[in-house]
């Protein structure tokens, strides 16, 4: 299945090579069909899929590859399954790093970071050596921000701005909670931000959010919520007691109710992240964890979630947003956690 099924006369554009690690897992099963169907890069772009697994996940990935073939997606150019990182990242334009070591019983955060360092260090090095010059990387596997930091540290020839981590799921969760509370369509809400780490210490921030009304006018989300909830004090209370904990702990809620980590919603968010990075954001910013250059006093080099827009060539941080004292304090808490993770992986020798 490794060679191209397209011939030049059938293929409207050159194929894009997409590598997915952890392809035999739960997210992989939800993600691959959407990528192959054109949902991520559009219906005109042939996709070459390279699925990277470890030996225990190889059969599952091969089974998924058979099913992908059976879908007869017009956009699917070829599929290869491998356990060799050099082959998996060879010529890749887009790398989705999903495969990660889950936290096991009795495992401390340091154990988890060490186990994942052993995955993301070598994968970063393989991306450095074998990926295409324009490679874009999205880390989904947790702890996503710090795994992205480790991978980037092992890829000195790839600009750090190409290594990103996923907070789009948190962003989408925030939009959905707001839409449900206000009883409005999700697409009418814009300019919501997730700051910081993809963890319970993340910072969902609606202070610059807007709601587009049926007549086309936009009003501040806080104003719409005050009308709905009965005043500004009620909005503050709702944000503190309901909205922020709900969004920040939604991953844990899914694990408790579903019995395993979010998979289809994580896959949808990964598709959204790459879609907007490559295709550009529409009239709202979105959220993505990208390397900090010091904006909003976030330590340069940390991979933190920011409000971002893309014109198709790269993410740009939305600058000069005013932060309330409460949001600033929460960002500082999230930052402390990111610094602790960075310092821990540094002390383990996983980054210098
Ligand atoms: P899963 O256990 O179902 O699948 C993980 C797969 O990764 C397995 O098939 C495993 O064999 C493979 N794998 C492990 N090490 C690998 C390596 N070195 N190279 C290639 N493949 C490897 O897990 P899942 O539900 O698919 O979740 C994957 C990761 O995504 C987890 O870390 C999870 O916590 C994380 N996650 C992140 C977000 C987010 O918003 N950032 C959301 C949901 C889940
Ligand atoms: C999520 O946000 O759903 C996941 O990151 C949760 C997890 O720990 O896998």
Tell me the strand order in the biggest sheet.
3-2-1-4-5-6
CATH superfamily of the largest domain: Lactate dehydrogenase/glycoside hydrolase, family 4, C-terminal
Strands, count: 14
**What is the rounded Rg?**
20 Å
Here the CATH topology of the largest domain equals L-2-Hydroxyisocaproate Dehydrogenase, Chain A, domain 2
Q: Approximately what portion of the residues adopt beta-strand conformation?
A: 15-25%
Helicity level: 40-55%
What does this structure look like?
With 352 residues, this protein is an alpha/beta fold. Helices cover 43% and strands 17% of the residues. The strands form 4 sheets. The chain has a 6-stranded parallel sheet with strand order 3-2-1-4-5-6. The chain has a 3-stranded antiparallel sheet with strand order 7-10-11. Strand 1, helix 1 (26-36) and strand 2 (47-52) form a beta-alpha-beta unit. Mean pLDDT is 95; it is low at 5-11.
Structure at a glance:
This protein has about 350 residues and is α/β, with parallel strands linked by helices. It contains eleven helices and 14 strands. The site of nicotinamide-adenine-dinucleotide has 28 residues, from α1 and α2.
């Amino acid at each position: 299945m490794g060679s191209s099924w397209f011939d030049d006369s059938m293929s409207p554009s050159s194929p894009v090579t997409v590598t997915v690690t952890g392809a035999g897992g739960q997210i992989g099963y939800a993600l691959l069909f959407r990528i192959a169907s054109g949902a991520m890069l559009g219906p005109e772009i042939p996709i070459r899929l390279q699925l990277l697994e470890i030996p225990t996940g190889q059969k599952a990935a091969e089974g998924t590859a058979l099913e992908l073939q059976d879908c007869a997606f017009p956009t699917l150019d070829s599929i290869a399954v491998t356990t060799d990182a050099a082959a998996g990242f060879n010529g890749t334009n887009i790398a989705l790093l999903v495969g990660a070591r889950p936290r096991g019983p009795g495992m401390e955060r340091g154990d988890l970071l060490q186990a994942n360092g052993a995955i993301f260090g070598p994968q970063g090095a393989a991306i450095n050596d074998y990926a295409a010059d324009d490679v874009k990387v999205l880390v989904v596997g947790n702890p996503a921000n710090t795994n992205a930091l480790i991978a980037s540290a092992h890829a000195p020839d790839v600009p750090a701005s190409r290594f990103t981590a996923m907070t789009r799921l948190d962003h989408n969760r925030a939009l959905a909670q707001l839409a449900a509370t206000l009883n409005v369509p999700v697409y009418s809400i814009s300019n919501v931000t997730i700051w910081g780490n993809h963890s319970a210490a993340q910072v969902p921030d609606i202070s610059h959010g807007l709601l587009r009304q049926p007549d086309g006018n936009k009003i501040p989300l806080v104003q719409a919520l005050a009308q709905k909830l009965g005043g500004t004090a009620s909005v503050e209370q709702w944000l503190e007691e309901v909205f922020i904990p709900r969004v920040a702990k939604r991953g844990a809620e899914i694990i408790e109710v579903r019995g395993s980590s979010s998979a289809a919603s994580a896959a949808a968010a990964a598709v959204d992240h790459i879609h907007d990075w490559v295709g550009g954001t529409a009239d709202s910013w979105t959220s993505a964890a990208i390397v900090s250059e010091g904006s909003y006093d976030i330590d340069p080099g940390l991979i933190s979630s920011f409000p971002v827009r893309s014109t198709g060539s790269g993410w740009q941080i939305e600058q000069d947003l005013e932060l309330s004292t409460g949001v600033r304090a929460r960002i500082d808490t999230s930052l402390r956690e990111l610094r602790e993770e960075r310092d821990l992986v540094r002390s383990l020798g996983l980054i210098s």
